[in-house]
Amino acid sequence: MYRTIICGIGMGSRQTANRLLRRAAALVDEGGNIVVTHVIENIPHRHLTELPEAFETTAIVDAEKKLAALCRELGIPARVEVRIGVAASALVALARETSADLILLSSHVSDITDYVFSSIVEKVVRHAGCSVLIDRRPDHAEGLTSRAEDTGPL
């Protein structure tokens, strides 16, 4: 169905990450590519002095390890790409760079900041040059999972 899928995963719910990765694996063509992506949002310069010097490097390495381990556990071959920047822009740029034909994301419960600033998902949908699939199923609506560790944080 799709040659290259960008699978955007946050570091929150393991259940959501599992669901997105399984969906990507089901949708990718044989011989196709899945690029599991996490974007660490830019930190305003005024806060950089309050953080350890290696904060960004540590955050990138930590996210890469967690995502690679999850892919191995699920038996899903994927390339892991962690970037720093504005999430929507980074996802759209990566899709363009890899000639992706699908970006797979999960939505969250909207709050007031989404109405004021617009959500990441909305920005990706508006600016992506490829199809975007939005998983809208909230984790609490899925019922019981097969393994207890599937429900914790990533």
Automatic annotation (TrEMBL):
Transmembrane segments: none
Superkingdom to which the source organism belongs: Bacteria
Domain UspA, first and last residues per copy: 1-134
Family: Belongs to the universal stress protein A family.
Name recorded for this polypeptide: Universal stress protein
